[in-house]
Design brief:
The complex is a heterodimer.
Chain A (H helix, E strand, L loop, with lengths): L8 E3 L13 H15 L5 H8 L2 H9 L20 H11 L13 H14 L2 E3 L10 H17 L3 H32 L6 H22 L3
Antiparallel strand pairs in A: 1-2
Helix pairs in contact in A: 1-3, 1-6, 6-7, 7-8
Chain B lengths: L1 E3 L11 E6 L2 E7 L19 H4 L15 E3 L8 E3 L2 H19 L4 E4 L6 H14 L2 E3 L1 H5 L4 H7 L16 E5 L3 H4 L4 H10 L2 E6 L11 E4 L5 H14 L5 H7 L5 E3 L8 H4 L9 E4 L3 E4 L18 E4 L5 E6 H9 L4 H8 L3 H11 L4 E4 L10 H14 L9 E3 L7 H6 L7 H21 L5 H14 L3 E2 L1 H8 L2 H5 L13 H10 L17 E5 L3 H4 L3 H9 L5 E6 L4 H4 L3 E4 L8 E2 L8 E5 L12 H18 L5 E2 L5 E2 L4 H5 L8 H15 L8 H7 L1 E3 L7 H4 L15 H5 L18 H6 L18 E3 L16 H4 L7 E5 H6 L7 E5 L4 E9 L6 E3 L51 E7 L18
Parallel strand pairs in B: 6-7, 6-19, 7-18, 8-9, 8-16, 9-10, 16-17, 19-20, 20-21, 27-31, 28-30
Antiparallel strand pairs in B: 1-2, 2-3, 4-5, 4-21, 11-15, 12-13, 14-15, 22-23, 23-26, 24-25, 27-32, 28-31, 29-30, 29-32
The chains are: A mainly alpha, B alpha/beta.
The structure holds iron/sulfur cluster.
Chain lengths: 219, 914
């Protein structure tokens, strides 16, 4: 059975409907987003630990078991010979202290308003206590995790389609671009593992997933 | 740069680029960014008109209201004090609560509006719904109802996208002047003509649109039915008509009993037979029931002429004949020579017109002039008959172009949602699906359009909307006027009172005849409407009859309109470019057009959402303070007034209009009427989005066609291509109305009747018309626009009528009849037909001497037959079937005024925008 777990977003009302569903292709996609969201959340001690122990890789592999397409994008290696401090420093170096993971510049305000509206329409809100802003990649991946889960859990075909469309539109409207920037940043920074591998995997996964969902929706 | 449009009653939504500098709007320009839809058909660009191009000037015009104002002294005395928002809202809230406590929530009355955009209307409708108040149907106020189209097609209007105009072979500009009133779309007429289409202008006056036509047909005011029926007669006499189309699409093959004049119903011929199953006479098998589930007749070959004897269920026999025979007999009275004597169009022109349209793709561009005649329904029914005989609807370049509302489903869903979000949308839609399923089980032949109508009827039964005819009759002083039989139709066999009470007694208006005689109005809201300028019957009628009954008159507007001048409290509203809004979507453009907040609202002005959310909060607080928590309204619904503030914003889900609009757009995308993934951001980026569907509700479905991304949208294709029935009693385009009142009036078929002598037996017919330089009165404070014309009210009359009265151009003249009088400057022109005068619409009463505007001579008569209900498609629907006042062909005389003009013409436009 699969359920979602939110880190930067919260439900705006008591959860309704089923809270756990049988694992399937859609929950697999949700699970991959869950792992990616957690990874891009920070380069803290937990992340370091999971990296050192190979847990990220294990989680991704397990999550991807029922994926309708292969998890591509390269190998995610362990952080080799890095200390916890070096791990955190590399995260900051590659992602500009997390700044590259969220929007910047003049359009930021509109982007934040836009993703907030998306969250709210689908029953979530960016938590005041969240460690990340609403337009942070981790939050956005969190949202995709939720949308996939809701699609899988929906008893109404109409609602399932709405959640599926939302995945496609949110990917194309927000995440594909952000992921491409992350891939480019990692490449430009000559990122060490696991950041280089995870960035590559992120870029490939969101592109493949977008294609998959768009295909299901007929274009 | 932001996108802006003007959300006026032009109902266009021309996207403009609005440029700001230092927070101030510097200028606007036409967008011109609409993609072509269909190869070989011109695109919509550039869209725009001079009113829109001068809009930004009005942001700082002299008539702006920028602070809440409270009357000091008598109403209309012109003295005001500036008050705070809190004071204003508290005073209004107290008046509302007093009225509810003493007379119930129906004593709080709002005028619905088609001015100001959806985000100006939705907030007060929401408050009214929460209070259980009454909202007066905008259609009954602005009288744009194409009654004849409704009688024929059972649907509000047949309106294709405007580019469909390009595809016509013959365009009849019938009582329309699109060069004035449809400036953004006029190019399609020119382009069609360039392509080879013939353009015919049919109007009493040689108007600006006639200049670019191939044939001008000068018809005497109010006699268009005679003209159209004469054309129909030529079509039949010369065998130029489309028999298969007539058989499939119309009721002309259906049988009528010659003894009663009623259709032969299944109930007549078999015990327990259906009241709404009709018959035709088949060539081979004789009497057959006409199919109800489809227009297609299959093997049936209806005979269109003859008389047959039919045995009834009780064993007696009756003679029947097809409607077509009755139509032929009726047309005997409209031989071209005879009709020419009535309508003033030479017989040769009538014949030429008939031959011109026969076998061609013909479209009638009608506008809203025709339906505004007392017998405008007969005029329209005759025009529709012409189209039927020539097979002219449901195919590109055909039909009668009225106006249809677009399917912004999110707007309709909004009022049913109890919280934000897609899950709630799905809950509501799933609920609607269940209702639809139940309706389908009851009537398996019902089309999506019919289901949409039923859904709207259900919503109406629990809603706030009421046709204004009863309000006007009981509370606004119209009863006496409407009973002036000499101003009405001589074929009325009873007084108006009799008809009205009969209609109410029979339950034809059950649940919507509100507020009734015993429910006095106490608080009156005008939000962007202007009844003292608009009301047929005149400002004096409202001031004398309605105003004294009202404890509080609240006007929400951005300008000091005539109604604001007579209000108790005026609340300043933000203008377009200062707030977010969308235009009422109509199918002309089939686009949702967005207007962004380019600059801050001027002074203390606020958006309607802001105003009514604050008012709802204030009502809740003040209700709680007086220990008032709930009440039961006239529909037996409990209203929790102490939590109305929270309910208004759904517990904080909708704090501003951006929240609301985003929800509408997302829900519409989810329901399939806007491109998937559309949000407010899409609108903000693109300015305007083309609809992808008509939606699931009646206003959109009335167009009865598929929406395709790469195709011009032509109305009624479902009827012609898929043979889907019409939502009429007979489920066919219905020319024969066998309701007893119609039979009694001799209007079972379209006929010509002389316009009644509304206003008295005077020699000149006032026809009015929309102006080129303003949308109603909105542009009357816009100096550049005022500088494009004489800037003052004009009485446009013919040279011969002027000469006969010793009037020369520029004279001040007095226009008077038995109802009232006004004065204005004469404009003498050979373009106006002798016997006709025109006063273009929009001038505020205070632009006339003594503040007596042109509506003082308009009695505002309503046609008694439009009180009919519970007959097939003749039943009330919001913005649909209902009595509306007539204001064309009001009879007056003109004389030189004793007094000189007192209204100074405006100065030249000032570039500083002040
Ligand atoms: S006023 Fe109406 S017709 Fe004119 S530009 Fe604006 S939206 Fe278009």
């Amino acid at each position: 059975m699969f359920t979602y777990s939110l880190q930067g977003l919260e439900l705006t009302a008591e959860p309704t409907g089923v809270l756990e569903v049988e694992e399937n292709e859609t929950t697999a996609r949700s699970a991959v987003y869950q792992v990616l969201g957690a990874f891009f959340a920070s380069g803290d001690a937990t992340s370091f630990e999971k990296s050192r122990e190979g847990i990220w890789t294990k989680e991704l592999t397990e999550a991807a078991l029922l994926l309708p397409f292969a998890l591509a994008g390269g190998e995610v290696l362990l952080a080799a010979g890095m200390s916890e401090g070096e791990y955190a420093a590399e995260f900051d170096h590659v992602f500009g202290g997390g700044r590259l993971l969220a929007g910047t510049g003049e359009a930021r305000e509109a982007e934040v308003a836009s993703v907030r509206r998306d969250y709210e329409y689908f029953g979530l809100a960016a938590s005041e206590e969240a460690p990340h802003p609403p337009d942070h990649l981790a939050t956005e991946l969190d949202f995709l995790q939720y949308l996939c889960f809701k699609e899988a859990a929906s008893s109404s075909p109409r609602l399932a389609t709405s959640f599926r469309r939302a995945q496609r539109d949110f990917l194309s409207g927000h995440v594909l671009g952000r992921a491409a920037e992350v891939v480019a940043a990692a490449r430009a920074a000559g990122a060490a593992q696991p950041f280089a591998g995870m960035a590559g995997l992120l870029g490939a996964f969101v592109a493949d997933d977008h294609g998959y969902v768009a295909g299901l929706l007929g274009g | 740069m932001t996108w802006g449009t003007h959300c006026l009653n032009c109902l266009a939504g021309c996207p403009y680029r609005v440029f700001t500098r230092d927070g101030v709007v510097a200028f606007e320009e036409q967008g011109g960014t609409i993609d072509p839809v269909s190869g070989g058909v011109p695109d919509l660009n550039p869209l725009g008109c001079q009113k829109g191009s001068a809009w930004s000037v009005q942001l700082s015009s002299d008539d702006r209201v920028v602070h809440p104002l409270r009357r000091v002294g008598d109403r209309g005395g012109g003295r005001w004090e500036q008050i705070s928002w809190d004071e204003a809202l508290a005073e209004i809230a107290d008046s509302i609560l007093d009225a509810i406590e003493e007379d119930g929530p129906e004593s709080v009355v709002f005028e619905e509006s088609v001015e100001g955009g959806l985000l100006a209307q939705a907030p007060f409708l929401r408050l009214a719904a929460l209070l259980g108040a009454v909202t007066l149907d905008a259609q009954g106020l602005v009288n744009d109802l194409p009654v004849g189209q409704h009688l024929t097609f059972g649907t509000f209007s047949c309106a294709s996208t405007v580019d469909d105009t390009f595809l016509a072979d013959v365009l009849l500009l019938w009582h329309a002047n699109p060069a004035y009133t449809s400036i953004p779309y006029f190019h399609f007429i020119s382009e069609a003509r360039y392509r080879g289409a013939r353009v015919v202008a049919i109007a009493p006056d040689y108007n600006a649109s006639a200049v670019g036509s191939d044939l001008f047909v000068p018809v005497r005011p109010g006699t268009d039915a005679a003209l159209a029926l004469a054309v129909c007669k030529v079509l039949l006499d010369e065998d130029l008509w489309d028999r298969p189309f007539v058989c499939t699409q119309t009721d002309l093959p259906l049988l009528v009993r010659t003894d009663t004049g009623r259709y032969l119903r299944a109930r007549d011929v078999e015990r327990g037979g259906d009241e709404e199953v009709f018959h035709l006479w088949d060539e081979v098998t004789g009497l057959r029931a006409a199919p109800r589930g489809s227009l297609a007749l299959g093997e049936l070959r209806p005979v269109l002429s003859g008389r047959w004897s039919v045995e009834l269920a009780d064993g007696s026999t009756v003679e029947v004949t097809p409607v077509m025979d009755l139509v032929r007999a009726n047309l005997e009275g409209y031989a071209p020579d005879d009709a020419a004597a009535v309508c003033g169009v030479p017989a040769s022109t009538i014949e030429r017109l008939a031959r011109m349209v026969a076998g061609k793709r013909c479209k009638i561009l009608e506008g809203f002039n025709g339906p505004k005649y007392f017998h405008g329904d007969l005029m329209e029914r005759s025009m529709c008959l012409l189209l039927a005989l020539t097979g002219n609807w449901g195919k590109p370049g055909t039909g009668i172009q009225g106006l249809a509302l677009g399917g912004l489903d999110g707007y309709f869903l909004f009022s049913m949602k109890t919280k934000k979000g897609v899950e709630e949308t799905a809950r509501v839609l799933d609920g609607i699906d269940l209702a639809v399923q139940a309706m389908r089980e009851r009537d398996p032949d019902a089309t999506a359009e019919m289901i949409g109508i039923q859904l709207l009827s259900l919503a109406t039964a629990s809603g706030t909307t009421a046709p204004p005819v009863f309000f006007n009759y009981h509370h606004a002083g119209y009863r006496e006027t409407w009973n002036r039989q000499e101003w009405s139709d001589p074929t009325m066999s009873r007084g108006f009172d009799d008809y009205l009470s009969d209609a109410v007694r029979r339950g034809w208006w059950g649940g919507v005849a509100r507020p009734g005689a015993s429910s006095p109005p106490r608080v009156f809201f005008s939000v962007g409407t202007n009844p003292l300028r608009r009301a047929r019957g005149g400002r004096a009628k409202l001031l004398d009859n309605l105003w004294p009954k009202l404890d509080k008159i609240v006007v929400v507007d951005f300008r000091m309109s005539a109604t604001a001048l007579h209000a108790d409290i005026v609340l300043p509203a933000a203008m377009q470019y200062e707030r977010v809004n969308v235009q009422y979507p109509i199918t002309h453009m089939l686009r949702l057009s967005f207007s962004d907040a380019a600059t801050a609202p001027k002074g203390e002005s606020r958006t309607e959402w802001d105003i009514f959310a604050a008012l709802a909060r204030t009502i809740a607080e003040r209700a709680a303070a007086r220990g008032m928590h709930e009440y039961v309204d006239a529909r037996r619904q409990t209203r929790h007034v102490d939590r109305i503030g929270d309910d208004f914003v759904l517990g904080g889900d909708f704090t501003d209009e951006e929240d609301v609009l985003d929800e509408w757009v997302r829900d519409s995308a989810d329901a399939g009427t806007l491109p998937v993934g559309s949000t407010i951001e899409t609108l903000r980026r693109d300015g305007s989005i083309r609809f992808t569907g008509l939606g699931g509700f009646a206003p959109g479905l009335a167009v009865a066609t598929d929406v395709r991304a790469d195709e011009v949208m032509t109305a009624f294709r479902w009827h012609v291509e898929q043979n889907l029935p019409f939502p009429t009693l007979t489920r066919r385009a219905q020319f024969y109305i066998d309701h007893p009142w119609f039979l009694d009036a001799g209007e079972q078929l379209p006929v010509h009747k002389e316009p009644p002598k509304m206003g008295g037996d005077w020699p000149l017919a006032l026809t009015s018309g929309h102006a080129r330089w303003t949308i109603h009165s909105i542009g009357m404070g816009n100096r550049p626009l005022l500088g494009t014309h004489r800037g003052r009210p004009l009485v446009v009359l013919s040279e011969s009528d002027a000469a006969a009265r010793g009037v020369v151009d520029g004279d001040q003249v007095r226009v008077a009849n038995d109802h009232g009088a006004f004065e204005a400057m004469a404009r003498v022109t050979p373009r106006v037909r002798p016997g006709q005068i025109i006063v273009y619409n929009g001038f505020e009463p205070h632009m006339f001497l003594r503040w007596e505007g042109a509506n003082e001579v308009e009695p505002g008569m309503v046609k008694w037959l439009h009180l009919v209900g519970k007959y097939g498609h003749l039943r009330y629907l919001p913005f649909g079937w209902q009595p509306v006042p007539a204001d064309r062909a009001v009879f007056v005389d003109v004389a030189r005024a004793a007094e000189s003009p007192t209204v100074a013409p405006p100065g030249p436009a000032r570039r500083d925008g002040r």
